[in-house]
Amino acid sequence: MDHIKLLILGSGPAGYTAAIYAGRSGLTPVLYEGLQPGGQLTTTTEVENFPGFPEGIDANDLMDRQRQQAERFGCEIRSAMAVRTDLSARPYHIWFDDGSEVTCDTLIIATGASAKYLGLSDEEKYRGQGVSACATCDGFFYRKKTVAVVGGGDTACEEASYLAGLASKVYLIVRKPYLRATQIMQDRVLQNPKIEVLFETNTLGLFGENGVEGAHVVFRKGEADERRYDLPIDGFFLAIGHKPNSDIFRPWVQTDETGYILTEGDSPRTGVPGVFAAGDVADPHYRQAVVAAGSGAKAAIEAERYLATL
Fold it and tell me: What pLDDT, on the 0 to 100 scale, is given for residue 226?
Protein backbone atom coordinates (compact mmCIF):
# COMPACT_ATOMS: atom_id res chain seq x y z
CA MET A 1 0.00 0.00 0.00
CA ASP A 2 1.33 3.43 -0.99
CA HIS A 3 1.81 6.11 1.62
CA ILE A 4 1.54 9.64 0.21
CA LYS A 5 2.58 12.86 1.90
CA LEU A 6 -0.04 15.01 0.10
CA LEU A 7 -2.97 13.45 -1.75
CA ILE A 8 -5.28 15.46 -4.01
CA LEU A 9 -8.63 14.08 -5.13
CA GLY A 10 -10.06 15.77 -8.23
CA SER A 11 -8.66 17.17 -11.46
CA GLY A 12 -10.56 20.39 -12.07
CA PRO A 13 -9.08 23.88 -11.64
CA ALA A 14 -9.01 23.46 -7.85
CA GLY A 15 -7.20 20.13 -7.92
CA TYR A 16 -4.68 21.08 -10.59
CA THR A 17 -3.90 24.44 -9.00
CA ALA A 18 -3.37 22.75 -5.64
CA ALA A 19 -1.03 20.32 -7.39
CA ILE A 20 0.92 23.16 -9.02
CA TYR A 21 1.40 24.99 -5.73
CA ALA A 22 2.22 21.84 -3.79
CA GLY A 23 4.63 20.65 -6.46
CA ARG A 24 6.49 23.97 -6.49
CA SER A 25 6.83 23.64 -2.73
CA GLY A 26 8.55 20.28 -3.11
CA LEU A 27 5.73 18.25 -1.60
CA THR A 28 5.62 15.69 -4.46
CA PRO A 29 1.81 15.49 -4.48
CA VAL A 30 -0.18 12.64 -5.99
CA LEU A 31 -3.44 13.56 -7.74
CA TYR A 32 -6.25 11.16 -8.64
CA GLU A 33 -8.29 12.39 -11.61
CA GLY A 34 -11.61 10.93 -10.55
CA LEU A 35 -14.66 10.24 -12.68
CA GLN A 36 -14.28 13.27 -14.97
CA PRO A 37 -10.66 14.15 -15.83
CA GLY A 38 -10.45 17.91 -16.18
CA GLY A 39 -13.56 18.44 -14.09
CA GLN A 40 -16.94 19.92 -14.92
CA LEU A 41 -15.35 22.64 -17.06
CA THR A 42 -14.72 20.09 -19.81
CA THR A 43 -18.48 19.83 -20.43
CA THR A 44 -18.43 23.28 -22.03
CA THR A 45 -16.58 24.41 -25.14
CA GLU A 46 -14.82 27.79 -25.14
CA VAL A 47 -13.81 29.58 -21.95
CA GLU A 48 -13.63 33.36 -22.25
CA ASN A 49 -13.54 34.46 -18.61
CA PHE A 50 -10.38 32.74 -17.35
CA PRO A 51 -7.62 35.36 -16.92
CA GLY A 52 -4.71 35.27 -19.33
CA PHE A 53 -6.57 34.23 -22.47
CA PRO A 54 -7.88 37.40 -24.14
CA GLU A 55 -9.11 35.48 -27.19
CA GLY A 56 -10.66 32.71 -25.12
CA ILE A 57 -9.49 29.11 -24.91
CA ASP A 58 -11.01 25.69 -25.51
CA ALA A 59 -12.03 24.23 -22.14
CA ASN A 60 -10.24 20.92 -22.71
CA ASP A 61 -7.11 22.76 -23.84
CA LEU A 62 -7.19 24.87 -20.67
CA MET A 63 -7.42 21.80 -18.46
CA ASP A 64 -4.71 19.99 -20.44
CA ARG A 65 -2.41 22.96 -19.85
CA GLN A 66 -3.13 22.90 -16.14
CA ARG A 67 -2.43 19.17 -16.05
CA GLN A 68 0.90 19.65 -17.85
CA GLN A 69 1.85 22.44 -15.46
CA ALA A 70 1.10 20.22 -12.46
CA GLU A 71 3.21 17.43 -13.94
CA ARG A 72 6.03 19.87 -14.67
CA PHE A 73 6.33 20.54 -10.96
CA GLY A 74 6.46 16.88 -10.01
CA CYS A 75 2.84 15.93 -9.42
CA GLU A 76 2.06 12.29 -10.14
CA ILE A 77 -1.36 11.93 -11.76
CA ARG A 78 -3.29 8.69 -11.49
CA SER A 79 -6.51 7.59 -13.20
CA ALA A 80 -8.91 6.28 -10.60
CA MET A 81 -11.82 7.46 -8.47
CA ALA A 82 -12.00 7.36 -4.68
CA VAL A 83 -14.90 5.22 -3.46
CA ARG A 84 -14.30 5.00 0.29
CA THR A 85 -12.41 6.92 2.96
CA ASP A 86 -11.41 6.61 6.58
CA LEU A 87 -10.48 10.01 7.98
CA SER A 88 -10.86 9.02 11.61
CA ALA A 89 -7.13 9.28 12.31
CA ARG A 90 -3.90 10.10 10.50
CA PRO A 91 -2.61 8.56 8.29
CA TYR A 92 -5.85 8.83 6.36
CA HIS A 93 -6.97 5.83 4.32
CA ILE A 94 -8.48 6.06 0.81
CA TRP A 95 -9.81 3.24 -1.37
CA PHE A 96 -10.26 3.51 -5.18
CA ASP A 97 -12.45 1.95 -7.85
CA ASP A 98 -9.50 0.13 -9.43
CA GLY A 99 -8.98 -1.88 -6.24
CA SER A 100 -6.01 0.15 -5.02
CA GLU A 101 -5.73 1.89 -1.66
CA VAL A 102 -3.39 4.49 -0.19
CA THR A 103 -2.71 6.28 3.07
CA CYS A 104 -1.78 9.95 3.32
CA ASP A 105 -0.67 12.59 5.82
CA THR A 106 -2.68 15.37 4.21
CA LEU A 107 -5.65 15.36 1.88
CA ILE A 108 -7.09 18.01 -0.42
CA ILE A 109 -10.67 17.25 -1.45
CA ALA A 110 -11.33 18.86 -4.85
CA THR A 111 -13.97 16.47 -6.17
CA GLY A 112 -16.30 19.21 -7.42
CA ALA A 113 -20.05 19.21 -7.82
CA SER A 114 -22.14 17.65 -10.56
CA ALA A 115 -24.92 19.65 -12.20
CA LYS A 116 -28.32 18.00 -12.07
CA TYR A 117 -29.90 17.25 -15.45
CA LEU A 118 -33.39 16.25 -16.48
CA GLY A 119 -32.21 12.89 -17.76
CA LEU A 120 -33.03 13.53 -21.42
CA SER A 121 -30.78 11.86 -23.99
CA ASP A 122 -30.75 15.15 -25.90
CA GLU A 123 -28.98 16.85 -23.00
CA GLU A 124 -25.92 14.72 -23.66
CA LYS A 125 -26.30 15.01 -27.42
CA TYR A 126 -26.24 18.82 -27.34
CA ARG A 127 -23.88 19.33 -24.40
CA GLY A 128 -21.56 22.14 -25.43
CA GLN A 129 -23.79 22.81 -28.44
CA GLY A 130 -26.57 24.71 -26.75
CA VAL A 131 -27.00 22.85 -23.46
CA SER A 132 -25.34 24.38 -20.40
CA ALA A 133 -25.60 24.25 -16.63
CA CYS A 134 -23.83 27.58 -16.06
CA ALA A 135 -25.27 30.87 -17.31
CA THR A 136 -22.29 32.84 -16.00
CA CYS A 137 -19.93 30.59 -17.94
CA ASP A 138 -21.79 30.42 -21.25
CA GLY A 139 -24.31 33.25 -21.31
CA PHE A 140 -22.07 35.52 -23.36
CA PHE A 141 -22.43 33.19 -26.36
CA TYR A 142 -26.17 33.89 -26.46
CA ARG A 143 -26.14 37.66 -26.73
CA LYS A 144 -29.25 38.86 -28.56
CA LYS A 145 -30.50 35.26 -28.88
CA THR A 146 -33.40 33.34 -27.36
CA VAL A 147 -32.74 30.96 -24.48
CA ALA A 148 -34.65 28.84 -21.98
CA VAL A 149 -33.84 28.21 -18.32
CA VAL A 150 -35.27 25.17 -16.51
CA GLY A 151 -36.07 25.50 -12.83
CA GLY A 152 -38.21 27.40 -10.37
CA GLY A 153 -35.93 28.19 -7.43
CA ASP A 154 -33.57 31.01 -6.59
CA THR A 155 -30.82 29.64 -8.82
CA ALA A 156 -33.11 29.46 -11.84
CA CYS A 157 -34.40 32.98 -11.25
CA GLU A 158 -30.85 34.29 -10.85
CA GLU A 159 -29.77 32.57 -14.06
CA ALA A 160 -32.80 33.89 -15.95
CA SER A 161 -32.19 37.43 -14.70
CA TYR A 162 -28.52 37.24 -15.65
CA LEU A 163 -29.30 35.91 -19.12
CA ALA A 164 -31.94 38.60 -19.63
CA GLY A 165 -29.10 41.10 -19.57
CA LEU A 166 -27.56 39.37 -22.58
CA ALA A 167 -30.24 37.52 -24.54
CA SER A 168 -33.13 39.07 -26.43
CA LYS A 169 -35.65 36.65 -24.85
CA VAL A 170 -35.58 34.26 -21.89
CA TYR A 171 -38.14 31.53 -21.21
CA LEU A 172 -38.22 30.20 -17.67
CA ILE A 173 -39.61 26.66 -17.81
CA VAL A 174 -41.24 25.74 -14.48
CA ARG A 175 -42.93 22.37 -13.95
CA LYS A 176 -45.04 23.62 -11.04
CA PRO A 177 -47.77 26.30 -11.17
CA TYR A 178 -45.63 28.57 -8.98
CA LEU A 179 -42.03 29.64 -8.36
CA ARG A 180 -40.16 28.28 -5.33
CA ALA A 181 -37.76 31.22 -5.25
CA THR A 182 -37.70 33.89 -2.56
CA GLN A 183 -40.15 36.73 -3.10
CA ILE A 184 -37.51 39.23 -4.16
CA MET A 185 -36.24 36.85 -6.85
CA GLN A 186 -39.78 36.12 -8.03
CA ASP A 187 -40.49 39.83 -8.35
CA ARG A 188 -37.29 40.38 -10.28
CA VAL A 189 -38.23 37.68 -12.80
CA LEU A 190 -41.92 38.47 -13.14
CA GLN A 191 -41.27 42.18 -13.66
CA ASN A 192 -38.59 41.68 -16.31
CA PRO A 193 -40.15 42.22 -19.77
CA LYS A 194 -37.53 39.96 -21.40
CA ILE A 195 -38.44 36.94 -19.25
CA GLU A 196 -41.53 34.83 -19.92
CA VAL A 197 -42.38 32.22 -17.29
CA LEU A 198 -43.91 29.01 -18.63
CA PHE A 199 -45.66 27.48 -15.62
CA GLU A 200 -46.76 23.82 -15.49
CA THR A 201 -44.44 23.03 -18.38
CA ASN A 202 -42.04 20.13 -18.85
CA THR A 203 -39.32 19.62 -21.43
CA LEU A 204 -39.63 16.42 -23.46
CA GLY A 205 -36.61 16.83 -25.72
CA LEU A 206 -34.45 19.13 -27.80
CA PHE A 207 -33.93 19.44 -31.53
CA GLY A 208 -31.58 21.09 -34.02
CA GLU A 209 -29.18 20.29 -36.85
CA ASN A 210 -25.93 21.94 -35.71
CA GLY A 211 -26.85 22.63 -32.11
CA VAL A 212 -29.99 23.43 -30.17
CA GLU A 213 -32.68 25.11 -32.27
CA GLY A 214 -35.65 24.39 -30.05
CA ALA A 215 -37.26 22.34 -27.30
CA HIS A 216 -40.19 19.96 -27.36
CA VAL A 217 -42.32 20.97 -24.37
CA VAL A 218 -45.64 19.99 -22.85
CA PHE A 219 -48.08 22.12 -20.86
CA ARG A 220 -49.94 20.32 -18.05
CA LYS A 221 -48.54 16.91 -18.87
CA GLY A 222 -51.08 14.14 -18.35
CA GLU A 223 -54.00 16.50 -17.79
CA ALA A 224 -57.14 16.77 -19.93
CA ASP A 225 -55.93 20.10 -21.35
CA GLU A 226 -52.39 18.85 -22.05
CA ARG A 227 -50.78 20.74 -24.91
CA ARG A 228 -47.52 19.85 -26.68
CA TYR A 229 -45.62 22.29 -28.81
CA ASP A 230 -42.14 23.28 -29.99
CA LEU A 231 -40.37 26.23 -28.40
CA PRO A 232 -37.77 27.90 -30.68
CA ILE A 233 -34.60 28.60 -28.66
CA ASP A 234 -30.86 28.87 -29.22
CA GLY A 235 -29.72 27.81 -25.77
CA PHE A 236 -31.02 25.53 -23.02
CA PHE A 237 -29.82 26.16 -19.45
CA LEU A 238 -30.31 23.75 -16.56
CA ALA A 239 -30.79 25.43 -13.18
CA ILE A 240 -32.23 22.64 -11.05
CA GLY A 241 -29.28 22.42 -8.70
CA HIS A 242 -25.89 20.79 -8.22
CA LYS A 243 -24.88 17.75 -6.19
CA PRO A 244 -21.51 18.13 -4.47
CA ASN A 245 -19.37 15.01 -4.80
CA SER A 246 -18.86 14.64 -1.08
CA ASP A 247 -20.71 11.45 -0.07
CA ILE A 248 -17.61 9.42 0.80
CA PHE A 249 -16.31 12.18 3.10
CA ARG A 250 -19.54 12.96 4.96
CA PRO A 251 -18.94 10.55 7.88
CA TRP A 252 -15.83 12.60 8.73
CA VAL A 253 -16.27 16.22 7.62
CA GLN A 254 -19.16 18.59 8.19
CA THR A 255 -21.44 19.47 5.29
CA ASP A 256 -24.56 21.53 4.80
CA GLU A 257 -27.89 19.85 4.08
CA THR A 258 -27.11 19.67 0.36
CA GLY A 259 -23.70 18.10 0.88
CA TYR A 260 -21.33 21.03 0.37
CA ILE A 261 -18.34 20.65 2.67
CA LEU A 262 -18.21 23.29 5.38
CA THR A 263 -14.83 24.92 5.96
CA GLU A 264 -13.55 27.11 8.76
CA GLY A 265 -14.15 30.77 7.96
CA ASP A 266 -12.44 31.84 4.74
CA SER A 267 -9.96 28.97 4.93
CA PRO A 268 -10.06 25.56 3.23
CA ARG A 269 -9.75 23.75 6.60
CA THR A 270 -12.48 21.17 7.18
CA GLY A 271 -12.11 20.65 10.91
CA VAL A 272 -10.28 17.36 10.39
CA PRO A 273 -6.55 18.12 10.90
CA GLY A 274 -4.71 18.01 7.58
CA VAL A 275 -7.86 17.62 5.47
CA PHE A 276 -8.79 20.55 3.23
CA ALA A 277 -11.60 21.21 0.74
CA ALA A 278 -11.29 23.32 -2.40
CA GLY A 279 -13.40 24.17 -5.41
CA ASP A 280 -17.06 23.45 -6.08
CA VAL A 281 -17.34 20.68 -3.48
CA ALA A 282 -17.19 23.47 -0.88
CA ASP A 283 -18.68 26.33 -2.90
CA PRO A 284 -22.48 26.52 -3.28
CA HIS A 285 -22.37 30.14 -4.44
CA TYR A 286 -19.88 30.95 -7.21
CA ARG A 287 -18.92 27.74 -9.03
CA GLN A 288 -16.41 29.48 -11.30
CA ALA A 289 -13.11 28.06 -12.56
CA VAL A 290 -11.07 31.04 -11.41
CA VAL A 291 -12.61 30.90 -7.93
CA ALA A 292 -11.92 27.17 -7.73
CA ALA A 293 -8.32 27.73 -8.80
CA GLY A 294 -7.85 30.30 -6.04
CA SER A 295 -9.26 27.93 -3.43
CA GLY A 296 -6.92 25.21 -4.67
CA ALA A 297 -3.97 27.51 -4.10
CA LYS A 298 -5.18 28.23 -0.55
CA ALA A 299 -5.58 24.52 0.16
CA ALA A 300 -2.03 23.75 -0.99
CA ILE A 301 -0.59 26.56 1.13
CA GLU A 302 -2.50 25.33 4.18
CA ALA A 303 -1.37 21.76 3.52
CA GLU A 304 2.26 22.85 3.34
CA ARG A 305 1.91 24.69 6.65
CA TYR A 306 0.25 21.67 8.23
CA LEU A 307 2.98 19.27 7.05
CA ALA A 308 5.61 21.57 8.54
CA THR A 309 4.12 20.92 11.99
CA LEU A 310 4.40 17.13 11.76
Answer: 95
Q: Could you tell me if 31 and 59 lie in one domain?
A: yes
User: For residue range 5-21, what is the model confidence (pLDDT) as tens digits?
Assistant: 999 999 999 999 999 99
Q: How many residues would you count in the chain?
A: 310
Question: Does an H or E element contain 104, and which?
Answer: strand 101-109
Which stretches in the chain have pLDDT values below 70?
A: none
On whether both 61 and 208 belong to a single domain, the answer is no
Q: Which of 122, 134, 234, 280 is catalytic?
A: 134
**Has this prediction a pTM greater than 0.85?**
no
Q: Which of 137, 157, 280, 283 is catalytic?
A: 137
Give the range of the structural domain holding residue 197, as residue numbers without chain letter: 121-238
List 122, 138, 234, 280, catalytic entry: 138
Distance between CA atoms of residues 26 and 294, nearest Å: 19
List residues bridging with 67 in a β-sheet. Answer: none
The reply to whether 75 belongs to the active site is no
Quick check: is 280 catalytic?
no
Burial (CB < 10 A; 0-12, 13-18, 19+), residue 12, is buried
Q: Which residues contact 225 (CB under 8 A, 6 or more apart)?
A: 219
Q: Is 157 a catalytic residue?
A: no
Does one domain contain both 151 and 231?
yes
